[in-house]
Amino acid sequence: MSAPKQTEMSEPNHARRFTILWLVACLIGVPIVIWVIGPELGPGTGTDQAAGQSTDATVLSAVATPVFLLVVVYLVYAVIFFRQPSDGALEGPAVRGDAKIQTTWIAVTSAIVLAVAIFGTVRLEGASGAGSGSGPNPLTVPSGPRLPVQVIAQQWAFTYRYPTYGGVETPHLVLPVNTTIELNVTSLDVIHSFWAYQLGVKADANPGVNNVAFVKPTRIMGFEVRCAELCGIWHGAMFDPHGKVVSVPAFKAWITAARVAYAPATAVLPPYSKTYLPEPTRRGG
Amino acid sequence: MSTTTESAPTPQPTSRPLWRRLIGFNLLTAVLLGVAGYYIGWLIGHHFGGGHSYKYESEADENDVALLLGYLGGVVGFLIGLGFANYPISRLLGRPASLREKEEEGIGRYFGLCTDHKVVGIQYLVGIGVFFFVGGLNAMLIRTELLHDTPTVVGPNQYLTLVGVHGSMMMGMMTSGILGPFANYFVPIMIGARRMAFPRIEALTFWLLMAAGFILMSTIFFGGFPTGWTGYEPLNDQAVMGMDSYIIFFALVGISMCLLGLNMLVTIITMRAPGMTWGRLPIFVWSVFATAVLMVLAAPTLIGTLAMSALDRTINTSFYVPGGGGSSYLFQNLFWFFGHPEVYILALPGFGIVLELLPVFTRKPLWGYRLAVSGMLGVSLMSFFVWQHHLFVSGINADLRPFYMLSTEIISIPTGFIFMCFMGTLWKARITFAVPMLFCLAWAFNFLIGGISGVALSDVPTDTQLHGSFFVMAHFHYTIMGGLIFSFFAAIYYWVPKMFGLRFNERLAKTHFWLMFLAFNSTFLPLFALGIKGMPRRVSSYAENLVGLNTWVSISAFVLGFSMLIFLFNVVYSLIFVRKPAEADPWHSKSIEWHLPTPVPVQNFDQIPVFDSDPYDYGTPLPIGAAASSPAGA
After folding, report:
1. Dihedrals φ, ψ of A140, to 5°?
2. Residue B83: how many CB atoms within 10 A of its CB?
3. B356 and B428, same domain (yes or no)
4. Which of A95, B195, B315, B589 is the most buried (most CB within 10 A)?
5. B323 and B212 co-located in one domain
């Protein structure tokens, strides 16, 4: 095949043109991601955890955008400018690689990855990460007094026990504002996952395991609770939109009323415990 | 399935009447023996079970032992019927055994045990294709149900079964989506071998997979299963007999996968022709190699994990049942130790296909061959160190989360190598927009979105919101459907002219591509938004305010399903009715498979070829001094 020689002179400087296009795309794209899309990415700002996660989502998106645009702009550029002429059978340049570019690529991607990982680790040990289920003995525990609340999952509902208020068990979660809450999540049957969307909390509920997450609501609001781990046929119906964050006096009033209202039930409940193993149903073991 | 009149005539078998040809070791016998084996196993199980379940808490008509033994008996009968016992029995009895099976017969060899790797490749392509469409139909039903925010079309139980069968079908059957058809067919040719290392095992992997597929589908007769493709315990233990179908299905897939991987490794390591050095191996073969390593190392974990599940369900062990002292974490941990490599088993062959095809359609050598190889091997290695990112909020090993966060993010570095090579090859290329190339370009776009969205999932704080939501679902559909399935179609459009000697209708193929690409993105991009807004996976009832987006997604999904019908129509129209013979080398490829006659002779080569370069010898050499013109913006 006698392809005409590449006339390097007449070729535009693709590298420069592409770099400029990419920078322009970044200048447009990154602000849009930070200020337009970013606020929609997280669970809101109702708790320290949710606010932290929203910030993290925005930061990660802002870091990812130039990488995304690099490839997309490049693909579009290549598709437009590096086409085979419709009647042609031209060969491209026989370039098999470039050590400098490859090294740069590896170095830059490694740097980005390390930066993202360090950022994630720092945030994980701070408020953002406290909302995730961290096992029975979390590495970092928020300082100051905490209100323990137990989340008990079973097919197909969540209930909540307040051990410091006589172990009363309620069907909806009500929390006082500006208080650090220690959520102890456990299950009575299969694996569930306690997901309080606006609180920025998700913690798997495993039978026989106490999975701890922390949350500090900063605003009076309502929130939704869902199950995020497939737990059987009514998994989708494990949805409670009646969670509430209320003022501290309102919480005190509510819990006092709840203790009275649920007193007959509390009397027959098993004593409060971090986990409740289900009744053994097996012969062997 | 000999193809053109011009091609070399396939040796005709001695003419026997049709009824006579139906008797013997073939698919028909296999099905009959499979049914017989099922009933034998079922009877034995029933005998030992005394007609009722071992588990006294279950209903009386449930007998997991009988069903499991029935399935095993069925599979054994099926394999005997196909003739897999002939060779070992002949050897045991000291009779001469045929080393090659059914390699010379006509259409019949596609319906039985055949040791010709090209026949197995086509068997895989058709067999997997059928199950791919079944899995796709399930997805259509799932999306129909999700048009409403409450269970309407199917009940919640059927819905979960649909989700589970769709997921298992795609994750199980499609693990061999590229290795099955294309690696079996082309790896021996590309490395200059006449066959695979273990031809009989090669055939076995295919027929095991087919048995597995039917067993998975049979779950609907036993009440389905509620766990999705992950089969989490203790829900698994609680489930009705349909769960056993899942267990046997996935175990068979695991065996098939493990054997397929082993066969590929041995073939690639030991059977390369002279001159086919590691540095000249086509990149597709490298990707098969990397995938095979994963298959061999990951699949046994799955088989063992499921065996323990089966024991829990039948003879009341308590590996995973907290009530008896087991741990629900154990299953998650073991499952994802297999499950995460599994994800790369799906993705890696796609990398190989795309990088293999790219030089052909850009008329350039593959840019950064060594980088691509190290990227694939790096992904392969790293994928064993990331599995606990599936368990970030589970409470297991919470202190190790920074490690898994780091390792998960590190795996994007070798994946980035693949993108670097992709982009480098496009630099100053002469791109022809043939259909396979369109799919390759779409792969890059889709996999990019899949990869970038993965960053948010690898980060624990943001994953707290996204874990178990539709965001995850969108993410892995972008990597698997956008990655594997798009490259799968690229491979089909690229290689079917070689495999069948027939060409596709180009206009239909282009329509298929554009409709599929647009509908795919229109289906799965909104799922990211749904996940961010708080929609959990695998639900048939969801929050009212998400109905609008879900309706949009469902309609797009139906269009996506329709695009598959266009493909199907093209297959029927072009390969069965029009039968236009393909050119010998329609893409002007320099790879060796295009320089063999079509159909490829049984022995592939008259003489074993000697290689003196890699297959990417495209492009005009640069004039001296211009070599510094760099391939990407430096």
Report:
1. -115, 130
2. 22
3. yes
4. A95
5. yes
Is residue B388 domain-shared with residue B290, that is, in the same domain? yes
Segment A192-218, tens digit of pLDDT: 999 999 999 999 999 989 999 999 999
| Residues B423 and B317 both lie in one domain | yes
Asked whether the beta carbons of B573 and B162 are under 8 A apart, the reply is no
Strands A192-196 and A201-205, by their bridges, are antiparallel
User: What fold is seen in the domain A146-268?
Assistant: Immunoglobulin-like (2.60.40)
Task: Give the three-state DSSP class for B163.
Answer: helix
Return the domain boundaries, chain A. Answer: 13-82, 146-268
Q: Specify burial of residue A274 (Cβ count, 10 A radius: 0-12, 13-18, 19+).
A: middle
Give the Å distances, CA to CA, from B55 to A59, B153, B307: 52, 33, 17
Identity of the residue in A95, A185, A227 whose CB atom sits nearest the CB atom of B364: A95
> Looking at the 3D structure of chain B, how many domains does it have?
2
| Residue B64: inside a domain | yes
Query: Contact B3/B581 with Cβ under 8 angstroms?
Result: yes
Q: Angle at CA A201, nearest 5°, toward A198 and A204?
A: 135
Mark whether B60 and B201 lie in a shared domain.
no
Q: Domain containing B390 — which CATH number? A: 1.20.210.10
In terms of Cβ atoms closer than 10 Å to its own Cβ (0-12, 13-18, 19+), residue B116 is buried
* Dihedral of the alpha carbons of B572, B442, B466, B143, in degrees to the nearest 10: -30
User: B282 by DSSP, 3-state: which?
Assistant: coil
Look up residue A219 and give its amino acid. Answer: R
What is the token pair recorded at A195?
Answer: 């997901």
List of chain A residues whose C-beta atoms are within 8 Å of the C-beta of residue B58: none
Q: Kindly state whether residue B126 falls inside one of the protein's structural domains.
A: yes
Please compute the mean of the pLDDT values over residues A47-57 and round it to a whole number. Answer: 93
- Report the SS3 class of residue B96: coil
- Assigned domain for B185 exists: yes
Select from B234, B368, B431 the Cβ nearest to the Cβ of A78. Answer: B431
**Cα dihedral: B259, B263, B269, B273 (round 10):** -170
Does residue B436 share a domain with residue B377? yes
Range of the domain at B88: 23-96
Residue of A190, A214, A223, A240 best to disrupt the B interface, most CBs of B under 10 A: A190
Question: Which DSSP symbol is given to A283?
Answer: S
Interfacial B residues in 474-513 facing A (CB < 8 Å): none
**Single-letter code of the amino acid located at A123:** R
Q: Which residues pair with B349 in a beta bridge?
A: none
Does residue B258 share a domain with residue B142?
yes
Q: What length is written for chain B?
A: 634
Span B250-281, pLDDT tens digits: 999 999 999 999 999 999 999 999 999 999 99
Please check whether residues B350 and B467 belong to one and the same domain: yes
For residue B572, what is the enclosing H or E element? none
Structural tokens at position B525: 């991009």
- Asked if B600 contacts B2 with a C-beta cutoff of 8 angstroms, the reply is no
Considering Cα of B443, then B446, then B450, then B451, what sign does the dihedral take?
A: positive
Per-residue model confidence as pLDDT tens digits over B33-84: 999 999 999 888 877 655 444 444 444 457 888 899 999 999 999 999 998 9
How many other β-carbons are positioned within 10 Å of the β-carbon of residue B462?
Answer: 30
Q: What share of chain A is helix, strand, coil (3-state, %, to 5)?
A: 40, 25, 35
Per the CB < 8 Å rule, is A230 touching B537? yes
Provide the shortest C-alpha distance from residue A218 to chain B (in Å): 18
Task: Compare all CA atoms of chain B with the CA of A136 and give the residue at the minimum distance.
Answer: B395
Min distance B468 CA to chain A CA atoms (Å): 5
Residues forming beta bridges with residue A162, ordered by sequence position: A168
Is B619 within 8 Å of A92 when comparing Cβ atoms?
yes
Predicted TM-score (pTM) of the model is 0.92
Q: Which residues contact A147 (CB under 8 A, 6 or more apart)?
A: A162, A164, A175, A176, A179, A180, A181, A182
